[in-house]
Structure formats: structure tokens, C-alpha cells
Amino acid sequence: MTAPSASGRPAAFGQAAPRKDARLKVTGAARYTTDVALPGMLHAKVLRSPHPHARLLTVDATRARQLPGVHAVITRDDLGGLDAVFGYFIKDQPIVATDKVRHIGDPVAAVAAEDEATALAALALIEVEYEVLAAVPDVESALAAGAPELFSGRKPRGVVPPYGTGASAELWPRPNVCYEFRYETGPDAVWAGCDHVFEDTFVFSRMNHFHLEPFVTVADARGGRIEVWTSTQNPFPLRKEIARVFRTEESAVRVNVPFVGGGFGAKHNCKTEPVAILLSQLAGRPVRYCLTTEEGFLTLSQHSAVMTVKTGLRADSTFVARESTVLLDAGGYTDGSPLVAEKAGYRIPGPYRWEHVRSSCACVMTSTTPAGPFRGFGATQATWASESQIDMIARRLGMDPYELRVRNLKALGEPFMPGESGIDSDLVEGLDLVAAELGYHERGTRPNRGMGLAIGFKDGGGVNKPAQARVKINATGHVFVSAGSVEIGQGISTALCLVAAEVLGLPPERVSYAAVDTDTSPFDQGTNASSGMTVTGRAVQLAAEQARDRILEFAAGRLGCEPADLELVDWGVRQGRTVHPLPPMIAQVFGGTGYEFSGDGFFKAPNSPEAPLDAPCVFWEIGWAGAEVEVDPDTGAVTVLKLVASGDVGRAANRLVVRGQEEGAAVMGYGQALFEEMRFEDGVLVNGEALDYRVPMAEDLPASFVSVSQEQRHGPGPFGSKGAGEGTLVPVAAAIANAVHDATGARITTLPLTPERVHRALRELPGQSS
Fold first, then answer.
1. Is 180 a catalytic residue?
2. By three-state DSSP, how is residue 428 classified?
3. 729 φ/ψ angles, rounded to the nearest 5 degrees
4. Per DSSP, which regions of 153-220 are E strands?
5. Backbone angles phi, psi at 647, to 5 degrees
6. CA-CA-CA-CA dihedral for 339, 255, 535, 495, to nearest 10
7. Which of 302, 299, 301, 413 is nearest to 351 (CA)?
8. Which residue in the list 241, 726, 756, 764 is annotated as catalytic?
9. Alpha-carbon separation of residue 696 from 252, 270, 573 (angstroms)
10. What does the pLDDT read at residue 552?
11. How much is the pTM?
12. Per-residue pLDDT tens over the stretch 6-24
């Protein structure tokens, strides 16, 4: 049953009802960008570089242009009049290559034709001459003295955003490094007071986002106006970037976003949009550009990383100082690498007390697939290193890793760093819950079996992220929520409708979420950083409250009382014990045509010069994980017997949605721990297709997989909520590695924990034969 609210009426918020989009999706009626078809629509295909690094000498598309059925071709000669590069902080990625190609799969030319087969045939007719250059396939080779530079001479233009106390960054500080973020607080003299100092290096593997719906755009750029239907997570920033690239006003660009079939951070900024738009302009017809799965592997990935962490402690195991150096593999173009750098560099201290912190995070350009935001971005890399080293330190000191964590964790309300917001979860409470569920404190000693814990920690809500929302209610009491948060499978359309329903005293069935369209939807910076519930959710709450107040003011005028004397409930107003239906009141004033009440809301965390990232964190997204494993000493195979994952959602808008998000995130972390890795050999991706790229399957899941959604109710979002969907991914890899260490004494510092790596680590243990 649905629990009653404080007023005695059924509460909308906090129930576990089916999602708003459930029926559409299970019946196949949901419309995605892949389903969009316009009359006269052409199909695009792209010719891609076969080389990881080469100078582009000539591109001759004469024969392709002459092929029947071909309506437009793009080469570097067709970019005149455009600002034909895009990116987040740095504008470096061209629509098609102009001077060089910088990774295998870099677009060189594009074709729009009557069908995909004709477009592919046209690509085969394009003649390209390359001057092959030495590749820099990894961070080590890219940073080596005298290494070839992917961007030599004048560097692409870019910006460094404003930072607050202790934080700074620099563009292109050295060859093949596009961005470096730094953070420091507290005196480094405290190192002299450390009784123990440990330094370790960790390697984080590169993953593919593996979203089910590919990158896809349908563009209609006829008549001086650009309209796109696209699979994107940030329609308004995308509109701005499209307008800049095509040198037009934002008002001339319309971005429509149907349902998005997964994104996990990949679907930000330009991907397929510029090619589709330019081909549409040249052809004078709508163009659909949809990547294959294999092309997706060549378009964007997660950042691999090499992280060196130095930690100092006192004899009583109190943490004193932590310094870290993070090297992110940015790939051939910068994409969102600066954003990931600031998050990884800022989050690597973890949720612990320190007297001194110094970190740097550099984005290193390599001749591989560009890297960008990935679910939990920055926190996944930082937590892998931080939580692995904490276990290593505990065992070196002869301590239980649980005890070392509890002794140093920050308390509820304690600022993360000077000038930052306070921790809004009880960290020990969450850790105890997972430890109890795992049976951590009752574990015995069994050969090749062990348990591990880890805490995932990230700031949530985005930096300087504004959101607007609009709520309107028609004469019959149906509510329309309009906001810019994109439904990417995470259930935000359901959650935001529940916020409005709770404020307005209406059953959730009466609330609908409007399609996202930059011409009509209120502004939102993007669907990222788990911000939908706390940032957009607050905007929706404020909009609903304004609409509610207007309704009560209207009803009070009809009833001759004060608005405070009334309560809105089930599209009526309660005055004492009497409920007055609203439709007759509305009809008396406005006639049979009715009327719509509306409200607008806006939310943004305030800026502060004291906050390291220019604005205090909106909320802290925290996940706890525990794992029990068994390791086969003969093969190195790791079997996870039990996995426990838990996140604090503050208060759940819909418990089913939260559970789905937290379990899905934990499984992504599970894949990161044991299976997933994009493997490059001299810049060539050798497993860049679905059959070769290993992800967890149903048969791989632990025999016992437990998720526990905590509702500690300290969140800043509507009714005490926080964001969810990333926190339970972040700690899983470290928890499993810590369990392997507990089981065998072998410490694996490189992801994933493949049988080969585990077996090698076992052979390297003292007393083991090689």
C-alpha cells in the first residue's frame, strides 16, 4: 500500500509503482531516435582512418560524388564558412579530418545517399593518400622525450574554467598533455610527522560505454534552420555548440530528444550531429546518421589511467597526508577529458580526514579512441587507487581494513575540503550495513576465500549547473511537467512526476512528463552527475509549489477565505472537513473552455570563491560495496560468491527505480573489476566489437547479489532526496580486489582482475615457484 503523507492523504513520493515509461518500453511503443524517419530522408556513412597517426595528404571524392544515388559528400574541402571543430573546454575535434588523423576510426569523409548500401559503395570510391606518422599508443610513449606530438605547433584553442581556493589548471602544459588539474590544501610540512609513508601505483583499464542504442542523429537543415532528433544527454549545450560550429544563432537550432537508449556519459556534446547536419545542408534533404556498434568503439571510451598515490600516517594509524599523480589516457581528441581530470584529481583523497592533500591529474593525448565522461567519471579511477591502497596499508600495519577506514572517515556534516559542502551521509552507518550483510565481522579463515570492503565517493549534482522547470495543470487536474532532464533509462521522468504529484496532492497517474525539445522545454545544463533528482528535481518542486499557491489563491478568492486555510488534495481544495472540487469553480470563472494553472521553478547551487570547484558540491553520492570471493590457485580464476552494494539515496522517489539504478551500476562495476577492457596493440583496437568485448552475462553474476538502498534522509533534493545511479558502481572493483588480497595475500593493482593477472600475482608471492 502507498503510505499516507503528513496530511493523511496517500503519498506519491516514495512509492514503488511501475515507471511512467514502463508500458511504452515493454510493448515496443517507445520512440527512440533510431525510430525517427522523415520523408525523403537520406542515409549517411563515414570513411574512417585505417591509421592511428598520419598526415592527410590528399582526399579525392570525385568518383563518389558521381555515383548514382549519392546526394552529398563531405571532405575537408567542404568545411568553408564553418567553425568546424568542437569539444568541451578545448575545440580540437574536426567534423572530418583536415590536417591529420589521430586515431584509427578518425572520420576522413562522409557521404549521404539514398540508402546505406549506396553510401558504403561511395566510400569505397574515395581515394585518400596518407603520410603515416609514428603512433603514441599509450601514456608512457606519449610522454617520452621526443615523442611525436598529436597537436604540434599552434595548439587548439580552449578555456580554463574558474576555480576556487586550492584548485587550478593549465592548458597544454607540456607536449601531448592537453590539460592538467591541480589541487592542494594544508601544509606539506606535516609529512615530517608521519611515522609511516606508503607509495603505490595503480592501473585502471579502459572500458566502452556499451549503450544499447547507438550514436544516432536525424538532421533536417533546410531553409536556414537546423532541426535535429538525436540521442543526447545534454540538448541545450549541444544546441549551443551546433550554433557555434555552423555560425548561426541558437534560436535557429532545435534539438528534439526522444527516449535515449542508454548513455552512461557518452552522449554529451557533438558526436553524430555535425556530420548529419552538414550533409543535410549540402543535399537539401533530411539525413540520418547512425553508427554501428563497431563505430561506437572508435568514437568514445572511458579513460584508462595510471595513478601513483603516496599516503602518510601516524603510528596510531591516523591519516596525515596524501599526494597523488594521475595520468589519464585522453585518446586522440580532448572531448570531456578536462572535466574528468578535475573530478579524478579532486576526489582521490576519498571521504577521509587529511591534514595535507596535493594532487595533479594530467590528460595525455594518445593515438587511440578519444576518451570522455563515463558513469561516475573521475571517481571510478580515483576510488580504485584510493580504496585499494587503504587495504594495502591496513594489511602492512597488521590492521583490519574496516578499522582503518572507520578511524579516519569524515563525520556527517564535516566539509570534504576547506570551502566545500559537508558530507551528507553517515559513512560509518553505511559501511556497517554492508559489512553486516556480507558477514564481514564473522568471517573465518578458509583457504583461498576472502572478503573485501570499499567506499565509493563522488560529488554529485554537477558544477555550476542550473536547471529550470515548468509545471502546468489543466482544468481537469492533469499535470504536465516540463524540464530539460533526458530520460536515458534512469527513470528521471518518473521521479520528477512524483515530485510534482506530491506537492500538488494528486495521484501520480495524473502527471505526465513532456518531451524534451529545446524550443519549448525549460533550460537544463544536461543529464549528468546524477543531477536530475537534486537540481532539476528542486526546480520541479519549486515550480509545482508556485502552481499550487496560485491554485489555492484562486480557490480562496472563490470561497472567501485565506489560501492558508486550504489544502490541495486530489484536484479539490479541503477547507476544514469539506472538500470543494476545483472543476466547477474553474468553469464558473473561465467557462467551458477551462483554464491552466502553471508555475515556474529554478535551482542552482550558489557560487563561492572558497569552493575549490567554484561552487560547493550539491550533494555527495556515496556507495559502499562488499565482496566475498574464492580464488582458484591453479588458474587464477576469481569467483565472486557474494556481492553487496549499497547507496544512500537520501529518500527514494520510487524504490523500484532506485533499486534498478543501483543494481545496474553495481553490475557495471563488476564488469570493470573482472572482464571489461578495451585492448590496444600499437594503437590498434583488437576487441572493438560486441562479440570480442567481454561484458558480464547473467551466468557470470555472483550466486548471491544483494543491493540495499539506504534512505538516510540528509539529501538536499525534494523531501530529503539525493541523486543515485553512479555511487554503487564506483567501489565494486576495489572491493573485489581487496577480497582477492584477503583470500590469497596477492595484490593486483591493474584492472581487470583477469585469471592471467591473478595467477601471475600468486606466482610472485614469497615462497611460490615461478
1. no
2. helix
3. -75, -40
4. 167-174, 177-185, 196-204, 216-220
5. -130, 155
6. -120
7. 413
8. 726
9. 44, 29, 52
10. 98
11. 0.97
12. 455 557 899 888 899 999 9
